[in-house]
Structures are given as structure tokens and as C-alpha cells.
Please model this.
Amino acid sequence: MSGWKKVEANIYFCGDANRQKPWLWKQKIDGVPYREFFFEKETAVAAKRAKRSSVAKYGSLAHEFDRDAYTEWREARKLLPDGVSLVDAARFWAQRHEGISDPDLTIQLAYDRFLKSKSADRKRMKKTPLSREHLSDLRWRGQTLVSLFGHLKPSEISSRQLLGLYAESTNAGRSILNQHETLRNFFNWCARKRYVVRNPYDEIRAEDLPDRITGEKHPLSLAAVIEIGAYFEEHWKKYCLWLALRLFAGIRTKEATRFRPEWIDRERRLIFMPGWERDATGGLLPGPKTRDDWPVYNIPSNFWAWYDAYRPAAGQRRVLAPHCKVWPKIRDGMIADGIIESFESNAFRDTFCTFNFSAVMDPKPIAAMMKHRNPDTMYRSYLGVLRPRWEGRAFRGIYPKAEPLELGIKN
Model:
């Protein structure tokens, strides 16, 4: 050691004026060299004595537990609950991180890869590509996960955090189940790609999810329905069949937007929506929301009156539906004319279910028309908004002004 002079056992001094800490404690413990620099001799000697004392009391391993190690231990203990040892915490970390194929990958990037893999896998397996709507649904179901935890790595998220994600959601029960299945599939995919060692959804069961009842219903009044029909006939004739599908056949918003005229069988008085259809590129587009065939029977007579009055032109590919930029004009026009005060997104479907349930006072036929798996859902959802039976029957008697024919069929 050039420039260093031994003063006493394990203590050295350097006379270089440029050295800030000229005092050195240097010693080998169990064959491993240790050293530390000090400003003053007294501090170096005190440190040497402290080390000897700790070795005598705790053994040679005491030298490995320096100030930095103590600080790290103290901060770690603050993060752990009582009763959990650092060894248990280290094992927990190793189980979830050891062997990770891409340790820097975030949940946001992983979910993007997951969506791309959905299309790539189907192409490789020579299956029909996923539709834009299906990919859009998958992206929407992962939106909350990405927005809250997108900065984390897939291996860092816990089952408790995922359950908290559902607790903060405002979705109804069915939407939560759909989201649950999509995110479970995402983490299964992460496990196959070795982005996680263990799927956190293995610790979550369906019964752990929040029990959500169906959201509040917003049916229109009978008078409002009559005025809305007249408003469309006066100002928006080309959308009258779309209105009839929504109000008098109970078709959902997205289904009515992509509705094909050939799905209406006038002779047999039914609507048949195939679960899937092909677009111009050969890709699959969903028909109904449930993505399986949906026949609608026992449709009230007034729908057929609206259909006869405003049936689509020959060769028309879709029932004309108001574009997303047009619908606000229609809605605001109805509000300006005093027909309605406001309009909820599911108001047409809620109106159909409310008045038809009121007309027959039996949820089973209406649930069948709506493709509800359980009539009890219809009963619980609409019992609080039922109207007198005469109002339900009057709703079924709302015919278009442009329809001069008496169909002669009573429902």
C-alpha cells in the first residue's frame, strides 16, 4: 500500500494532503478482506472496536451487516406486515420473478401484445380473423386494468389488486363476468409466454366477484313514445324502420346499427339474426351481442305495421341507422320540442321490455324475445317500473301514420 503507514493493528494513515479520509481500518474476516476510510483516527479505532465487539457477540457474519444493510433491512420491515419474515418475502418474490422471459415488460405493453396475438394465432391456424367489434370488446375489457396498473409488470400485480379492480367498476354483473374471463385469459397467455411465473387469477373464483344487480331502468312514457314516432315520421323518415326495431322489436343499439333487411322474415313474422356474418374481407362480424343465432318470435303486430310502411328498398344492405354524428341532432331535437327531457342510452330497449312485460304480466315470453337465459332476471330488473296493463296494450297499438292497412292480427 503505497503512501500508507501502519499505526496500530489494522489501522493505517496516509500523509497525502489531497486525501479527504486519511485513516483506514483494514482487516480480513473469514478470509474476506474488509476496509473502511475515516476522517479521524479516533473514529477508525472506534469502528475497529465496534467490529470486534460485534464479532465476539454475533460471530464473523456481523461484518456483513453494515449501515447500508441495516438501512435496507429497516425499510423492508416497514413494508411487511407483522408475522411475515424477510425470508418468506424473498421466496414470494422469487416464485413470481424467477425465469421471467421479459422482466422489463409492463402490463400495458403485454396487453397490446395479447390483442395482436389473437389475430396472429388465428391467421397461423388458418381460422377466420377476429372482427373489429370483437377486438374492440377485448380492448375495452382490459381498459381498466391498463389504466390502473399498466405501469406495473405482469408479475407484480396481486389477486387482491385485481379484485379491487372489480370493486371499483360500475359495470353490471354480466359485464364483470365477461371482463373476468378476458383478464383470466390474458394472464394465462402471460404464463405461457413466461411473463409471469404464476397466474394471479388462480387465486380468484367467480364467487369472489362483486354481486352486481342490473342497473337502473329508464323507460320512456307512453305519451313520449307516441310523440317520438310522430317526430321520426315528420323529420327522419329514413330511420323509421330502425326506430321500430329498437322500440317495437327490442333490438339492441349495436345490433340495430348493423341490421340486415334479410334478417326480417315478413311471411313467417319473425326476425332471425345469425350469430356471425362475413364482411367484405372475409372476416367475421357478430350478429347479436351473444354471438349465437337469435330467432325472435311473437313480435307485436305494430312492428309489422311499421315494417310495411317503411320497408327497405330492394338490394339495400343495411337498415338505415342514424350515424353517431346524426343521433345527437335527433336527440337534441326531441328535447327542444319538449318530447323528452333527457335520453339514456338503453331507453328504447328498456321501454320495449317495460311495456311488453306490463301487457302480458309474465316475464317468460319477453325474456325469450330478449334472449335472456333466466326469466327471473327480467322479473327483478323490470318489476319496479311496470305500468298498468292497459298502458302495455296501448304501447302495442302504436302504429305509424303512414300505414293505412289494418293487419287484423292481435297480440
Summary: Strands lie at 4-8, 11-14, 23-29, 32-38, 264-265, 270-273, 276-278, 284-286, 294-296.
